[in-house]
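[User] At your convenience, examine this fold.
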Amino acid sequence: MVPLSFANTQLHLTPGRALYWPAQGALLVADLHLEKASFYAQHGQMLPPYDSRETLERIAAEVAATGARRVITLGDNFHDADGASRLDDHACTMLEDMTGSLDWIWITGNHDSRRDGSVAEAMCGGAMVKELELDGVVLRHQAKPGETRSEISGHFHPKLQLRVRGRRISRPCAVVAETGDGTHRMIAPAFGALTGGMPAGDPAIIGALQPACAIDAVVPAGGRLARFPLWRAGSGMVQAAA
């Protein structure tokens, strides 16, 4: 884990793409997309059906490593609103054990609700909210353009794309915006096993974090936090790290 100063507190960004908030005893995970493989199978695209097990095992490992007492998801928890009904017995037991033993809060996202408003998470324990504010930081699924409070969200699955020694590499990352008045906003990396990604410097991500004076991609590297500038007020995109 590497420390990350954020909105007058300290977070830790883990190599496994989670955020740990020591002052809250909370592990934050975005975009689990549980049961994505079974959703694709229903539509004729066969993928190995173990994505939910892998994602839940990684959450359990992060809880053990950090000592977190609380897990807060940041939306798009299941890939669709019927996902919970497709969990196999092993994955279902894992999830029920965690929601029963931890203070588990589901923040819901755009993949989670049916038209009638019901959600898959209701079958699995834990509490459900659309957004949550803790110690002045708003936790929600999708960044709200124009938000003036500090904020942590998901939704965009940001990835850092770099060319290293002639090879192009892509890594999940967090994207952090500074406003200049002590407020910070972050889009967390997607945690789920089968989540793709959007370039961290994509205009949709930069626009979602406005107003800002600086926007960086951040990743843990060698026990330290590596920062890659994406955008600066008045100068636009930094293409090398986009």
In short: Helices lie at 36-42, 51-66, 89-101, 203-208. The CA atoms of residues 70 and 102 lie 5 Å apart. The mean pLDDT is 88.
